[in-house]
Amino acid sequence: MNDARTGTGFDNEVGLQSLKLLQRLTAETHMTVATDVKPYRQQFFAGKLGFFVASPSAAANFAQTVGNRFTMRTAPFPIGAANGTLPTGGNVVTITAQDPAHQKAAWDYVKFVTSAQSQADVAKATGYMPTNKQSGEALQAFYASNPIYATAFAQVPLSAPWYGYPGGKGAEIWRAQRKIIDQVQRGALSPDEGLKEMISTTNSLLN
Questions:
Q1: Which residues contact 93 (CB under 8 A, 6 or more apart)?
Q2: Cα-flanking dihedrals φ and ψ of residue 164, to 5°?
Q3: CB atoms < 10 A from the CB of 183, how many?
Q4: At residue 146, what are phi and psi to the nearest 5 degrees?
Q5: Distance between CA atoms of residues 121 and 107, nearest Å
Q6: Which candidate, 56, 50, 55, places its Cα nearest to that of 72?
Q7: Which alpha helices (H) appear in the chain, and where do they start and end?
Q8: Which H/E stretch holds residue 79?
Q9: Lowest mean pLDDT across 17-21, 83-87, 89-93, 107-111
Q10: Residue 90 — pLDDT band, cuts 50, 70, 90?
Q11: Which domain of life is it from (predicted)?
């Protein structure tokens, strides 16, 4: 959104160039726009799809499923600007207990699950980016022998909070935007038309 949080912040050249790039992905490669991710995931596992963009938390599952069919690698997510960042989803631990003894027990658990070692264990089991930077030391040997897991941690310096629209309509806004992006990628809307529609739709849902 804009700095005043009164409307969209992508009604500019950055927003337009983003939609132009998304349209190029299909226009210049002649690839089909997916309506369901499952068959394309299966194509990747079968070695028939060149690359697949997914959360790093899927690294372990992908590696296990691919097995010895081919050599799977991971790559840093491309950043299109010198000051660009990567939004992170992540998790949160909330203590709702009112009883002091329960609060203390819950706090001890929070410290345990967010510790460097616990986060390292999660990263090893899933590929997830550890939320504790100190986990890097515990993961050095693991990352050295399992480079597909190391890519996410290497981009920790670029991490930024996942943006949330005010008013509790974030999911509804993202669904509406996704439909417009789909039409841009299919060529039903030009990037200019798509941007205007995204701005109008987003602002209307915010008000």
A1: 109, 110, 113, 114
A2: -120, 130
A3: 15
A4: -135, 70
A5: 20
A6: 50
A7: 13-27, 37-45, 59-66, 100-113, 116-126, 135-145, 147-154, 170-185, 191-206
A8: none
A9: 89-93
A10: low
A11: Bacteria
Q: How far is CA 31 from the centre of its chain?
A: 22
- Domain count of the fold of the chain: 1
Domain assignment present for residue 3? The answer is no
Residue 6 is assigned to a structural domain of this protein: no
Question: How far is it, in rounded angstroms, from Cα 171 to Cα 195?
Answer: 19
Contact criterion met (CB below 8 Å) for 178 and 198: no
The pLDDT of residue 161 is 85
Task: Tokens for 79, please give them.
Answer: 């950043």
Q: Which amino acid is at 128?
A: Y
Query: 92 CB contacts (<8 Å, ≥6 apart)?
Result: none
Structure tokens at 96: 């709702």
| Gap between the Cα atoms of 160 and 162, Å rounded | 7
| Coil, helix or strand at residue 108 | helix
pLDDT digits (tens, 9 = 90+) for 15-64: 999 999 999 988 998 888 888 889 999 999 999 998 999 999 899 999 99
Q: Which domain holds residue 143?
A: 13-206
pLDDT tens for each residue of 132-163: 889 989 999 999 999 999 999 999 899 888 88
State the first-to-last Cα distance of the chain, in angstroms, to the nearest integer.
Answer: 13
- Output the 3-class SS for 156-167: HHHEEECCCCCC
